[in-house]
Amino acid sequence: MNTPDQGTPGQDTPGMARDAREPEAQEWAAQERARQQVRDATSTASPDAADAAYRRIAAALRHPPRVELPVDFAARVARIAEAPVPAPIPVPVPEGMRPRLLSQSGAFEQALLRALVAVFALCALAAGLVYGASVSAQLQAAIGVQGVEWTVLLAGCLGLSWSFEWLRRRAGHDGTRPA
């Protein structure tokens, strides 16, 4: 049980003034007093409305809530869970209002994706032209000229490999051999 001096776990209050903690201590004492009165079944009629409210809360917390479920509640829920899902009701839809297939409706998204990739490529090219010289100088200073050459060679190999893989998939070759 927390006492007013313990404070909140993980909270450090070494410089807190005594008068700033006093309302908390009074509040805690009122809560504890109400809890004790309910536990001991003693009711000292206090004129303070806060004490009465705390007593009502403490009394409510001492007893489990009344839940009035029907006796066969679990069986009802089980029947509902096991019941087959009803078939959808067919609704006549006019010919012009029928939804299109996903491949047809995805055409706009495909075009938008291509446009966004093109814009990204142009931005990357522009950034390379603007910042390329300073980045190249910083890379040379960090890993040396030979390290930059090997890094460019590795990037070229990866780019070619990925490009050939993309072309192979685009041509319809998925890597499986015919039987």
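That was protein one. Protein two is written in the same sequence-then-structure order:
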Amino acid sequence: MTVDILVLILLWVIGLLASMLFVPKNRLRRFLIAFMICQTFTWLSAVLLVYFDRISYPIREFPKATHLLLALNYFFFPLICGFYSIYEPKRNYKVRLLYLSVWVTGVVVIIKLLEKYTHLLKFQHYTWYWSWLNFFWMFAVSNLLYRWFFKDKAMFQNDKGATQ
């Protein structure tokens, strides 16, 4: 088993365990909505980056079906975005901006480690700061849509603990 396959398996296992352990039951619905919103943006972004030869994924789960890496673009990054959305502090704008920047920086560090030490992704005409900006807007817009979706608290009476 190569290091790349082991990293793919670890991404799936760590992601599943983290979602089971760190998503409170009263926020599961909110987490899934945030996950799916971000999944849309990560898919669109990944498709465009691959199409314009900015990023390539030499090792993929389904190489004949898609040029994208499912573990990262459809599962792991949306999972991180879901955690970001359900745990975002409800404080002032500066604290929320710092919180977003820390999460995005964490994602970019993961990407750079994967790019440097594995063959899962390869930057061709792309750098870490473009990746940072890309994830910044994805997380920000996903969170904006997430908060808009749950703005009517009366509709979601079962989520009492999650709206505070």
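The mean pLDDT is 91. Keep this in mind for the problem set.
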